[in-house]
Amino acid sequence: MKRYITILVWLLSSFCVKAQEFKPMEHNGLLYQEMANRTSETETPALIIYLHGKHASGNDNQKQLNQTGVRNISAYIEKNRIPAYFLVPQCPEDHEWDGRDDSSSYADEVEELIAFYLSTKDVDTCKIYICGVSMGACGCWKLLNDKPNQFAAALIASGQAHRAYPSDFTATPLYVTVGSNERSYDALTWFTSQIQKEGGNVRFDVLNGLEHREACDEAFSTKRITWLFSKKRD
Fold this sequence. Notes:
Blueprint: H1 2-19, E1 22-27, E2 30-37, E3 46-51, H2 68-79, E4 84-89, H3 107-120, E5 128-133, H4 135-146, E6 153-157, E7 174-179, H5 185-197, E8 202-207, H6 212-218, H7 222-229
Parallel strand pairs: 3-4, 3-5, 5-6, 6-7, 7-8
Antiparallel strand pairs: 1-2, 2-4
Helix pairs in contact: 3-4
């Protein structure tokens, strides 16, 4: 019995450590979680932004941490001892990241958050990455369009660009994924092919047989996250 209690205590303590990797933060009304992985005294930290999907919206500053992409990226950063600030903002329920459907854009607040970190933290400006899933993917497209020369690379899962053209996305290396059974399959297949024709650097993976939720989870594989962190702006 004592052995089982010891194992249980170890498991609970391990969970607490994992939960404490992120700290709840706020900037000008934008709720977000920060994971500060300061593993090097000589290497300047990267800055990674992850935009969640619609079902993680709210004002609890917690739901967005439950996404597979957040867990996989944070585990990758920790395992590979990557110096980084990993930020996971939360969008209110009455907004969307890219502001479509007549709601105001909440991507502007993310741009302000990035500017805040660039002005107040020691961040490697050649290693700023943007990731997003579903509604968050739509927000990624907007941020890339608004700031075409800011990001080193983007990992975009199961979300379309709105009010933009393929030629707007040739400045940043992109990795885009979509499930073969998703509504956005045709649109993303066409859009990424047109970015390539415009001279853009884009990888496009079709996740065969997957619906939206499964495709969102499968997008953030070790292979794609490795690709993301391999990029650096000149």
